[in-house]
Amino acid sequence: MDLKDVKELIALARKSIETEFYNQEPAVGEEIKQKFSKPLGIFTTLNTLNHQLRGCIGFVEARYPLWLGVIYTARLAAFKDPRFEPLKKEELDNILIEMSILSVPKRIMPDPKYICIGKDGLIVKYGRISGLLLPQVATEYNMDAKTFLEHTCLKAGLPRDCYKNPQVEVYSFEAEVYKELSPKGDVIKEESFSCGS
After folding, report:
1. Considering the chain, what is the average pLDDT of its residues?
2. pTM listed for this prediction
3. Contacts of 92 (CB under 8 A, 6+ apart)
4. How far apart are CA 112 and CA 43, in angstroms?
5. C-beta of residue 116 within 8 angstroms of C-beta of residue 141
């Protein structure tokens, strides 16, 4: 995706959080609705200026047009992430917004050797229980494939070796990750990784 387009989406995410403080809806032009009409899986992450997580919520499934998914996930990350207090109005200008646009997840063998660190995000499912970690989590915390798989199990509230249970399903997905360098500032695309065969 073009960085100029992503900057528009990140601006929309910020506007959607800002207008929520006033119980308003962000104004979205028809051009943006048309340009970003394709439904895609998306996660919006909020970080502090010293790169501490402040909220992260998204949709794996492509259930909304991208522009609407941006609005929803930004507001959910800001106000509904159960790990954090709702964002305060005075915090917004000190928040960096990161956006992950997801590919369709595919089921993989539950074995670390099938996981490409830095490229793959993971989903672990057991019945109606699931946990997800974005690809950048593994690189940010210097995890190897086994540790990443174990932490995805833990994220689901399951034992760290749950992936060995034949009833547990493991899925991988890729993400295009974009982030602000400063609040309302330039946007960059995170380096993408490739794994050898």
Report:
1. 94
2. 0.87
3. 14, 17, 18, 183
4. 24
5. no
- Locate 53 and state its tokens: 């997580």
pLDDT score of 1 more than 50? yes
**Measured distance CA(15)–CA(25) in Å, rounded:** 9
Tokens at 155, concatenated: 């994220």
Q: How far apart are CA 183 and CA 96, in angstroms?
A: 5
End-to-end CA distance of the chain: 27
Tokens of 72: 């929803």
Domains of the chain with bracketed CATH: 3-102 (3.30.700.20), 106-173 (3.30.1490.150)
The answer to whether 72 and 64 have CB atoms below 8 angstroms apart is yes
Residues near 19 by beta carbon (within 8 Å), at least 6 away in sequence: 25, 26
Q: What pLDDT is recorded for position 195? A: 73
Across 131-170, b (16+ Cβ under 10 Å) vs e yields: bbbbbbbbeeeebebeebbbbbbebbebeeebbeeeebbb
Q: What is the tens place of the pLDDT at every residue in 74-113? A: 999 999 999 999 999 999 999 999 999 999 999 999 999 9
Q: Would strands 169-173 and 53-59 be described as parallel, antiparallel, or unpaired?
A: unpaired
Cα angle: 190, vertex 191, 193; to 5 degrees: 130
